[in-house]
Write a structure and sequence with these properties.
The chain is α/β, with parallel strands linked by helices. It has three domains: about 20-75; about 75-205 and about 375-415, no CATH class; about 215-370, 3-Layer(aba) Sandwich (Rossmann fold). The protein contains 20 helices and eleven strands. The chain has a seven-stranded mixed sheet, sandwiched between helices. A four-stranded parallel sheet has the order 1-2-3-4, sandwiched between helices. Strand 9 (about 290-295), helix 14 (about 300-310) and strand 10 (about 310-315) form a beta-alpha-beta unit. Helix 4 packs parallel to helix 6, helix 12 (about 240-250) crosses helix 16 (about 345-355) and helix 14 (about 300-310) crosses helix 17. About 35% of the residues are buried.
Protein backbone atom coordinates (compact mmCIF):
# COMPACT_ATOMS: atom_id res chain seq x y z
CA UNK A 1 0.00 0.00 0.00
CA UNK A 2 2.87 2.34 0.83
CA UNK A 3 4.40 1.79 -2.63
CA UNK A 4 1.02 2.25 -4.33
CA UNK A 5 0.43 5.57 -2.55
CA UNK A 6 3.93 6.76 -3.37
CA UNK A 7 3.36 5.96 -7.06
CA UNK A 8 0.32 8.27 -6.94
CA UNK A 9 2.47 11.11 -5.57
CA UNK A 10 1.11 10.87 -2.00
CA UNK A 11 3.77 11.45 0.64
CA UNK A 12 3.57 9.36 3.80
CA UNK A 13 5.17 10.84 6.88
CA UNK A 14 5.03 7.54 8.70
CA UNK A 15 3.57 4.04 8.27
CA UNK A 16 2.66 1.66 11.07
CA UNK A 17 1.48 -1.89 10.39
CA UNK A 18 -0.06 -4.09 13.06
CA UNK A 19 1.50 -7.51 13.55
CA UNK A 20 -2.03 -8.91 13.75
CA UNK A 21 -2.28 -8.55 9.97
CA UNK A 22 0.59 -10.99 9.58
CA UNK A 23 -1.36 -13.59 11.51
CA UNK A 24 -4.91 -12.78 10.41
CA UNK A 25 -4.98 -11.10 7.00
CA UNK A 26 -8.54 -9.86 6.42
CA UNK A 27 -8.53 -10.69 2.70
CA UNK A 28 -7.61 -14.29 3.58
CA UNK A 29 -10.58 -14.43 5.96
CA UNK A 30 -12.93 -13.17 3.23
CA UNK A 31 -11.38 -15.52 0.66
CA UNK A 32 -12.08 -18.58 2.83
CA UNK A 33 -15.63 -17.33 3.38
CA UNK A 34 -16.28 -16.88 -0.35
CA UNK A 35 -14.73 -20.21 -1.28
CA UNK A 36 -16.93 -21.99 1.25
CA UNK A 37 -19.91 -20.13 -0.18
CA UNK A 38 -18.96 -21.18 -3.73
CA UNK A 39 -18.92 -24.80 -2.53
CA UNK A 40 -22.42 -24.35 -1.13
CA UNK A 41 -21.39 -24.36 2.56
CA UNK A 42 -23.26 -21.24 3.71
CA UNK A 43 -23.28 -21.93 7.46
CA UNK A 44 -19.63 -23.02 7.52
CA UNK A 45 -18.65 -19.90 5.58
CA UNK A 46 -20.31 -17.63 8.15
CA UNK A 47 -18.66 -19.52 11.03
CA UNK A 48 -15.25 -19.12 9.37
CA UNK A 49 -15.85 -15.40 8.90
CA UNK A 50 -16.87 -14.88 12.53
CA UNK A 51 -13.91 -16.89 13.81
CA UNK A 52 -11.43 -15.03 11.62
CA UNK A 53 -12.68 -11.50 12.28
CA UNK A 54 -13.02 -12.16 16.00
CA UNK A 55 -9.42 -13.43 16.19
CA UNK A 56 -8.14 -10.48 14.15
CA UNK A 57 -9.99 -8.05 16.39
CA UNK A 58 -8.57 -9.35 19.66
CA UNK A 59 -5.05 -9.71 18.26
CA UNK A 60 -5.19 -6.12 17.01
CA UNK A 61 -6.33 -4.67 20.35
CA UNK A 62 -3.79 -6.78 22.32
CA UNK A 63 -0.82 -5.29 20.42
CA UNK A 64 0.66 -2.98 23.08
CA UNK A 65 3.57 -1.95 20.84
CA UNK A 66 1.12 -0.84 18.16
CA UNK A 67 -0.92 1.18 20.66
CA UNK A 68 2.21 2.95 21.93
CA UNK A 69 3.35 3.77 18.37
CA UNK A 70 -0.06 5.15 17.45
CA UNK A 71 -0.21 7.21 20.64
CA UNK A 72 3.14 8.79 19.87
CA UNK A 73 1.87 10.17 16.55
CA UNK A 74 -0.81 12.37 18.18
CA UNK A 75 -3.21 12.02 15.24
CA UNK A 76 -5.84 14.72 14.69
CA UNK A 77 -8.34 12.52 12.86
CA UNK A 78 -8.67 8.92 11.69
CA UNK A 79 -10.41 7.31 8.72
CA UNK A 80 -11.64 3.87 9.77
CA UNK A 81 -12.91 0.90 7.77
CA UNK A 82 -16.57 0.38 8.60
CA UNK A 83 -16.27 -3.38 8.03
CA UNK A 84 -17.68 -5.30 11.01
CA UNK A 85 -14.31 -5.51 12.74
CA UNK A 86 -15.11 -3.36 15.74
CA UNK A 87 -11.55 -3.19 17.03
CA UNK A 88 -10.70 -0.34 14.61
CA UNK A 89 -13.41 1.81 16.19
CA UNK A 90 -12.40 0.78 19.71
CA UNK A 91 -8.78 1.70 18.91
CA UNK A 92 -9.90 5.24 17.99
CA UNK A 93 -11.75 5.43 21.32
CA UNK A 94 -8.68 4.25 23.19
CA UNK A 95 -6.45 6.81 21.42
CA UNK A 96 -9.08 9.53 21.89
CA UNK A 97 -8.96 10.34 18.16
CA UNK A 98 -12.04 11.67 16.31
CA UNK A 99 -12.81 9.41 13.37
CA UNK A 100 -14.63 9.15 10.06
CA UNK A 101 -16.06 5.77 9.04
CA UNK A 102 -15.75 4.52 5.48
CA UNK A 103 -17.51 1.49 4.01
CA UNK A 104 -19.45 -0.16 1.21
CA UNK A 105 -22.67 -0.76 3.15
CA UNK A 106 -24.57 0.96 5.89
CA UNK A 107 -26.17 -0.56 8.98
CA UNK A 108 -29.22 1.62 9.73
CA UNK A 109 -29.42 0.31 13.28
CA UNK A 110 -25.86 1.45 14.11
CA UNK A 111 -25.89 4.68 12.10
CA UNK A 112 -29.43 5.49 13.23
CA UNK A 113 -30.44 6.08 9.61
CA UNK A 114 -34.21 6.07 9.02
CA UNK A 115 -35.33 2.96 7.14
CA UNK A 116 -38.76 1.92 5.97
CA UNK A 117 -38.85 -1.87 5.44
CA UNK A 118 -41.82 -1.39 3.10
CA UNK A 119 -39.61 -0.16 0.25
CA UNK A 120 -36.01 -0.14 1.52
CA UNK A 121 -34.31 -3.57 1.44
CA UNK A 122 -32.17 -4.38 4.47
CA UNK A 123 -28.48 -4.70 3.66
CA UNK A 124 -27.19 -8.10 2.53
CA UNK A 125 -30.69 -9.02 1.33
CA UNK A 126 -31.42 -9.80 -2.32
CA UNK A 127 -34.68 -7.83 -2.41
CA UNK A 128 -35.39 -4.75 -4.50
CA UNK A 129 -37.61 -1.77 -3.72
CA UNK A 130 -40.68 -3.42 -5.30
CA UNK A 131 -41.25 -6.19 -2.78
CA UNK A 132 -44.19 -8.55 -2.60
CA UNK A 133 -46.18 -8.83 0.62
CA UNK A 134 -44.20 -11.88 1.78
CA UNK A 135 -40.89 -10.18 0.93
CA UNK A 136 -41.96 -7.16 2.99
CA UNK A 137 -42.74 -9.50 5.89
CA UNK A 138 -39.28 -11.10 5.62
CA UNK A 139 -37.63 -7.69 5.17
CA UNK A 140 -39.35 -6.37 8.30
CA UNK A 141 -38.26 -9.43 10.30
CA UNK A 142 -34.68 -8.95 9.08
CA UNK A 143 -34.81 -5.33 10.24
CA UNK A 144 -36.14 -6.34 13.68
CA UNK A 145 -33.27 -8.85 13.89
CA UNK A 146 -30.76 -6.10 13.05
CA UNK A 147 -32.19 -3.93 15.83
CA UNK A 148 -32.06 -6.77 18.38
CA UNK A 149 -28.75 -8.39 17.45
CA UNK A 150 -25.43 -7.70 19.18
CA UNK A 151 -22.68 -5.99 17.16
CA UNK A 152 -20.55 -8.49 15.19
CA UNK A 153 -18.15 -10.17 15.44
CA UNK A 154 -18.03 -10.46 19.23
CA UNK A 155 -20.52 -10.59 22.07
CA UNK A 156 -17.97 -9.07 24.44
CA UNK A 157 -17.88 -5.41 25.37
CA UNK A 158 -14.59 -4.39 23.73
CA UNK A 159 -14.31 -0.99 25.41
CA UNK A 160 -14.67 -2.58 28.84
CA UNK A 161 -11.98 -5.14 28.00
CA UNK A 162 -9.42 -3.03 26.13
CA UNK A 163 -10.09 0.53 27.36
CA UNK A 164 -10.48 0.08 31.13
CA UNK A 165 -9.05 3.55 31.78
CA UNK A 166 -12.06 5.24 30.14
CA UNK A 167 -15.83 5.05 30.69
CA UNK A 168 -17.27 1.83 29.31
CA UNK A 169 -19.40 2.28 26.20
CA UNK A 170 -21.20 -0.38 24.21
CA UNK A 171 -19.92 -1.66 20.86
CA UNK A 172 -22.83 0.08 19.17
CA UNK A 173 -22.08 3.40 20.91
CA UNK A 174 -18.48 3.19 19.75
CA UNK A 175 -19.62 2.93 16.11
CA UNK A 176 -22.04 5.82 16.59
CA UNK A 177 -19.22 8.19 17.58
CA UNK A 178 -18.18 8.60 13.92
CA UNK A 179 -18.06 12.24 12.81
CA UNK A 180 -19.07 11.24 9.30
CA UNK A 181 -19.89 8.10 7.42
CA UNK A 182 -18.40 8.03 3.91
CA UNK A 183 -20.75 5.59 2.18
CA UNK A 184 -19.30 3.97 -0.95
CA UNK A 185 -22.69 3.98 -2.66
CA UNK A 186 -24.69 6.06 -5.11
CA UNK A 187 -28.34 6.57 -6.01
CA UNK A 188 -27.40 5.07 -9.39
CA UNK A 189 -26.41 1.90 -7.53
CA UNK A 190 -28.94 1.81 -4.71
CA UNK A 191 -32.56 2.48 -3.87
CA UNK A 192 -33.96 5.82 -2.65
CA UNK A 193 -33.71 5.98 1.11
CA UNK A 194 -33.70 8.70 3.78
CA UNK A 195 -30.20 9.44 5.04
CA UNK A 196 -29.02 11.48 8.00
CA UNK A 197 -26.76 14.53 7.40
CA UNK A 198 -23.61 12.73 8.55
CA UNK A 199 -23.88 10.09 5.77
CA UNK A 200 -22.10 11.22 2.60
CA UNK A 201 -22.69 9.22 -0.60
CA UNK A 202 -19.38 8.77 -2.41
CA UNK A 203 -19.96 5.70 -4.56
CA UNK A 204 -17.33 4.97 -7.19
CA UNK A 205 -14.18 5.92 -5.26
CA UNK A 206 -12.24 3.17 -7.04
CA UNK A 207 -13.54 4.02 -10.53
CA UNK A 208 -11.28 6.19 -12.66
CA UNK A 209 -10.50 6.91 -16.31
CA UNK A 210 -9.01 3.90 -18.07
CA UNK A 211 -5.41 3.76 -19.20
CA UNK A 212 -4.13 2.08 -22.32
CA UNK A 213 -3.65 -1.64 -21.72
CA UNK A 214 -0.53 -3.64 -22.62
CA UNK A 215 -0.05 -4.33 -26.34
CA UNK A 216 -0.81 -8.05 -26.18
CA UNK A 217 -4.05 -7.35 -24.29
CA UNK A 218 -5.05 -4.63 -26.73
CA UNK A 219 -4.36 -6.93 -29.68
CA UNK A 220 -6.47 -9.70 -28.14
CA UNK A 221 -9.31 -7.29 -27.26
CA UNK A 222 -9.39 -5.82 -30.77
CA UNK A 223 -9.28 -9.12 -32.66
CA UNK A 224 -13.01 -9.87 -32.48
CA UNK A 225 -16.43 -8.19 -32.44
CA UNK A 226 -16.31 -7.55 -28.74
CA UNK A 227 -14.52 -8.25 -25.46
CA UNK A 228 -16.01 -9.78 -22.29
CA UNK A 229 -14.18 -9.17 -19.00
CA UNK A 230 -14.62 -12.01 -16.48
CA UNK A 231 -13.45 -11.34 -12.94
CA UNK A 232 -14.61 -12.43 -9.50
CA UNK A 233 -12.41 -9.95 -7.67
CA UNK A 234 -8.91 -9.98 -6.27
CA UNK A 235 -9.88 -12.14 -3.29
CA UNK A 236 -11.75 -15.05 -4.84
CA UNK A 237 -9.19 -17.27 -6.60
CA UNK A 238 -10.70 -20.76 -6.83
CA UNK A 239 -13.90 -21.94 -8.52
CA UNK A 240 -15.63 -25.27 -8.07
CA UNK A 241 -14.43 -27.28 -11.11
CA UNK A 242 -17.90 -28.00 -12.48
CA UNK A 243 -18.88 -24.32 -12.27
CA UNK A 244 -15.78 -23.06 -14.06
CA UNK A 245 -16.07 -25.85 -16.63
CA UNK A 246 -19.60 -24.76 -17.58
CA UNK A 247 -18.42 -21.17 -17.98
CA UNK A 248 -15.50 -22.14 -20.23
CA UNK A 249 -17.77 -24.34 -22.36
CA UNK A 250 -20.19 -21.43 -22.82
CA UNK A 251 -17.38 -19.03 -23.76
CA UNK A 252 -16.02 -21.42 -26.39
CA UNK A 253 -19.40 -21.57 -28.12
CA UNK A 254 -19.60 -17.78 -28.59
CA UNK A 255 -16.85 -17.45 -31.17
CA UNK A 256 -17.52 -13.81 -32.10
CA UNK A 257 -16.60 -12.60 -28.61
CA UNK A 258 -13.24 -12.74 -26.84
CA UNK A 259 -13.07 -13.46 -23.09
CA UNK A 260 -10.40 -12.23 -20.67
CA UNK A 261 -10.62 -14.16 -17.39
CA UNK A 262 -8.87 -13.43 -14.13
CA UNK A 263 -8.18 -16.95 -12.93
CA UNK A 264 -5.30 -19.31 -12.22
CA UNK A 265 -1.60 -18.80 -11.56
CA UNK A 266 -0.27 -18.53 -15.11
CA UNK A 267 -1.25 -17.11 -18.50
CA UNK A 268 -3.16 -19.47 -20.81
CA UNK A 269 -4.70 -18.73 -24.22
CA UNK A 270 -7.02 -20.99 -26.21
CA UNK A 271 -8.93 -19.65 -29.23
CA UNK A 272 -11.13 -16.82 -27.91
CA UNK A 273 -10.24 -17.22 -24.20
CA UNK A 274 -7.31 -15.59 -22.40
CA UNK A 275 -6.76 -16.58 -18.76
CA UNK A 276 -4.50 -14.40 -16.61
CA UNK A 277 -3.55 -14.45 -12.90
CA UNK A 278 -4.18 -10.68 -12.80
CA UNK A 279 -5.98 -8.24 -15.11
CA UNK A 280 -6.17 -4.43 -15.21
CA UNK A 281 -9.91 -4.60 -14.60
CA UNK A 282 -10.72 -0.89 -14.70
CA UNK A 283 -8.65 -0.33 -17.84
CA UNK A 284 -10.24 -3.30 -19.62
CA UNK A 285 -13.74 -2.09 -18.69
CA UNK A 286 -12.82 1.23 -20.29
CA UNK A 287 -11.53 -0.44 -23.49
CA UNK A 288 -13.61 0.55 -26.56
CA UNK A 289 -14.21 -3.11 -27.54
CA UNK A 290 -15.56 -4.21 -24.13
CA UNK A 291 -19.26 -5.12 -24.31
CA UNK A 292 -19.88 -7.13 -21.13
CA UNK A 293 -18.60 -7.63 -17.58
CA UNK A 294 -19.17 -11.01 -15.85
CA UNK A 295 -18.63 -10.48 -12.13
CA UNK A 296 -19.43 -11.55 -8.56
CA UNK A 297 -20.86 -8.02 -8.17
CA UNK A 298 -18.62 -6.55 -5.50
CA UNK A 299 -19.16 -2.88 -4.77
CA UNK A 300 -16.05 -1.47 -6.47
CA UNK A 301 -16.35 -3.58 -9.63
CA UNK A 302 -20.03 -2.71 -9.99
CA UNK A 303 -19.31 1.00 -9.73
CA UNK A 304 -16.52 0.62 -12.31
CA UNK A 305 -19.09 -0.96 -14.65
CA UNK A 306 -21.41 2.02 -14.15
CA UNK A 307 -18.52 4.45 -14.57
CA UNK A 308 -17.61 2.97 -17.96
CA UNK A 309 -21.19 2.09 -18.98
CA UNK A 310 -20.63 -1.67 -19.36
CA UNK A 311 -23.62 -4.02 -18.79
CA UNK A 312 -23.14 -6.99 -16.48
CA UNK A 313 -23.97 -10.61 -15.78
CA UNK A 314 -23.64 -11.20 -12.05
CA UNK A 315 -22.95 -14.34 -10.00
CA UNK A 316 -23.27 -13.07 -6.40
CA UNK A 317 -21.91 -15.21 -3.57
CA UNK A 318 -22.12 -13.57 -0.16
CA UNK A 319 -21.77 -10.44 1.99
CA UNK A 320 -23.13 -7.44 0.02
CA UNK A 321 -23.00 -9.16 -3.39
CA UNK A 322 -26.63 -10.52 -3.50
CA UNK A 323 -27.88 -7.03 -2.64
CA UNK A 324 -25.66 -5.41 -5.29
CA UNK A 325 -26.75 -7.95 -7.91
CA UNK A 326 -30.43 -7.34 -7.13
CA UNK A 327 -29.88 -3.61 -7.63
CA UNK A 328 -28.05 -4.09 -10.95
CA UNK A 329 -30.80 -6.34 -12.30
CA UNK A 330 -33.65 -4.18 -10.99
CA UNK A 331 -32.21 -1.05 -12.59
CA UNK A 332 -31.79 -2.83 -15.91
CA UNK A 333 -27.98 -2.85 -15.93
CA UNK A 334 -27.72 -6.61 -16.44
CA UNK A 335 -28.85 -10.11 -15.48
CA UNK A 336 -28.37 -11.98 -12.19
CA UNK A 337 -27.50 -15.70 -12.24
CA UNK A 338 -27.02 -18.40 -9.61
CA UNK A 339 -23.45 -19.70 -9.36
CA UNK A 340 -24.71 -23.02 -7.99
CA UNK A 341 -27.57 -23.54 -10.43
CA UNK A 342 -27.07 -22.57 -14.07
CA UNK A 343 -26.58 -24.38 -17.36
CA UNK A 344 -24.15 -23.71 -20.19
CA UNK A 345 -27.09 -22.99 -22.50
CA UNK A 346 -28.57 -20.48 -20.04
CA UNK A 347 -25.25 -18.62 -19.78
CA UNK A 348 -24.85 -18.52 -23.58
CA UNK A 349 -28.36 -17.09 -23.98
CA UNK A 350 -27.75 -14.41 -21.32
CA UNK A 351 -24.35 -13.41 -22.73
CA UNK A 352 -25.86 -12.90 -26.20
CA UNK A 353 -28.83 -11.01 -24.76
CA UNK A 354 -26.73 -8.60 -22.68
CA UNK A 355 -23.83 -8.17 -25.13
CA UNK A 356 -25.76 -7.84 -28.39
CA UNK A 357 -28.97 -5.99 -27.49
CA UNK A 358 -29.40 -2.33 -26.57
CA UNK A 359 -31.69 -2.85 -23.56
CA UNK A 360 -29.04 -3.21 -20.85
CA UNK A 361 -26.36 -1.13 -22.56
CA UNK A 362 -28.75 1.83 -22.90
CA UNK A 363 -29.70 1.79 -19.20
CA UNK A 364 -26.16 1.62 -17.86
CA UNK A 365 -24.85 4.14 -20.43
CA UNK A 366 -27.45 6.62 -19.18
CA UNK A 367 -26.38 5.96 -15.58
CA UNK A 368 -22.77 6.52 -16.63
CA UNK A 369 -23.65 9.88 -18.20
CA UNK A 370 -25.41 10.99 -15.00
CA UNK A 371 -22.40 9.86 -12.94
CA UNK A 372 -19.99 11.92 -15.07
CA UNK A 373 -22.24 15.00 -15.14
CA UNK A 374 -21.67 15.81 -11.47
CA UNK A 375 -19.46 18.73 -10.43
CA UNK A 376 -17.37 16.65 -7.97
CA UNK A 377 -15.83 13.21 -8.27
CA UNK A 378 -16.55 10.82 -5.36
CA UNK A 379 -12.96 11.25 -4.12
CA UNK A 380 -13.27 15.05 -4.20
CA UNK A 381 -16.58 14.89 -2.33
CA UNK A 382 -15.17 12.59 0.36
CA UNK A 383 -12.06 14.74 0.78
CA UNK A 384 -14.16 17.91 1.01
CA UNK A 385 -16.32 16.60 3.86
CA UNK A 386 -13.45 15.01 5.77
CA UNK A 387 -11.57 18.31 5.57
CA UNK A 388 -14.72 20.13 6.70
CA UNK A 389 -15.23 18.12 9.91
CA UNK A 390 -11.47 18.15 10.61
CA UNK A 391 -11.61 21.97 10.65
CA UNK A 392 -15.05 22.64 12.15
CA UNK A 393 -16.11 19.51 14.00
CA UNK A 394 -19.26 17.49 13.36
CA UNK A 395 -21.96 19.33 15.32
CA UNK A 396 -23.55 20.58 12.07
CA UNK A 397 -23.92 17.03 10.78
CA UNK A 398 -24.58 14.96 13.89
CA UNK A 399 -28.27 14.38 14.57
CA UNK A 400 -29.56 13.88 18.09
CA UNK A 401 -30.80 10.37 17.28
CA UNK A 402 -27.21 9.10 17.47
CA UNK A 403 -27.06 10.00 21.17
CA UNK A 404 -30.50 8.77 22.18
CA UNK A 405 -30.85 5.51 24.13
CA UNK A 406 -32.11 2.69 21.91
CA UNK A 407 -35.50 2.53 23.61
CA UNK A 408 -36.11 6.22 22.89
CA UNK A 409 -34.87 6.11 19.29
CA UNK A 410 -37.09 3.14 18.42
CA UNK A 411 -39.98 4.69 20.42
CA UNK A 412 -40.30 1.72 22.75
CA UNK A 413 -40.88 4.14 25.63
CA UNK A 414 -43.60 5.93 23.65
CA UNK A 415 -45.21 2.67 22.54
CA UNK A 416 -45.01 1.33 26.10
CA UNK A 417 -46.67 4.52 27.37
CA UNK A 418 -49.41 4.37 24.73
CA UNK A 419 -49.95 0.68 25.40
CA UNK A 420 -50.17 1.24 29.15
CA UNK A 421 -52.58 4.16 28.60
CA UNK A 422 -54.70 2.02 26.30
CA UNK A 423 -54.76 -0.87 28.78
CA UNK A 424 -55.53 1.55 31.63
CA UNK A 425 -58.37 3.10 29.63
CA UNK A 426 -59.76 -0.32 28.83
CA UNK A 427 -59.50 -1.32 32.50
CA UNK A 428 -61.22 1.89 33.66
CA UNK A 429 -63.94 1.50 31.04
CA UNK A 430 -64.40 -2.11 32.09
CA UNK A 431 -64.70 -1.16 35.77
CA UNK A 432 -67.11 1.68 34.97
CA UNK A 433 -69.20 -0.61 32.76
CA UNK A 434 -69.17 -3.30 35.45
CA UNK A 435 -70.26 -0.81 38.13
CA UNK A 436 -72.97 0.61 35.88
CA UNK A 437 -74.17 -2.88 35.07
CA UNK A 438 -74.27 -3.79 38.76
CA UNK A 439 -76.08 -0.55 39.55
CA UNK A 440 -78.59 -1.20 36.76
CA UNK A 441 -79.18 -4.78 37.95
CA UNK A 442 -79.62 -3.65 41.58
CA UNK A 443 -82.03 -0.93 40.49
CA UNK A 444 -84.01 -3.36 38.37
CA UNK A 445 -84.25 -5.76 41.30
CA UNK A 446 -85.46 -2.94 43.59
CA UNK A 447 -88.07 -1.86 41.03
CA UNK A 448 -89.41 -5.40 40.78
CA UNK A 449 -89.51 -5.67 44.57
CA UNK A 450 -91.42 -2.39 44.87
CA UNK A 451 -93.98 -3.52 42.26
CA UNK A 452 -94.58 -6.77 44.09
CA UNK A 453 -95.13 -4.95 47.35
Amino acid sequence: MKEALSSEGIKLSHSIISKSFDKYYYEDIIRVTLEKMAQGSKIESQVKWLQGTNALCHEFMSDKKLIDELNEQKFDIAVIDYAPVLCFTIMAYKLNVPFVSFGAFIDPTLNRVPLNPAFTPTFFSAFNDKMTFLERVVNTMRYIFLVARPAAPTLENLAGKYVPEKPTISNQEAKQRAMLYIHDSDILFDYPQPLSPNVILCGGLAARPSKKVAKHLDTFASSNKGLVVVSFGSIFKTFPNNTFGKMIEAFKQISDLNFVIRQGDKEEKTDNILRLPWIPQNDLLGHPRTVLFITHCGRSGSMEAIYHGIPVITFPLSIDQPYNAAVMENKGYGIKMDLHDFSTEELITNIKQVAFTDKYRRNIKQASEIFHSRPQTPAERAAYYIDLVAKHGDKHFRHVGLDMPWYSFYLFDVMSFLLSMTLTSIAVMYLVFRKCKRHFINRTVKDKTCKKE
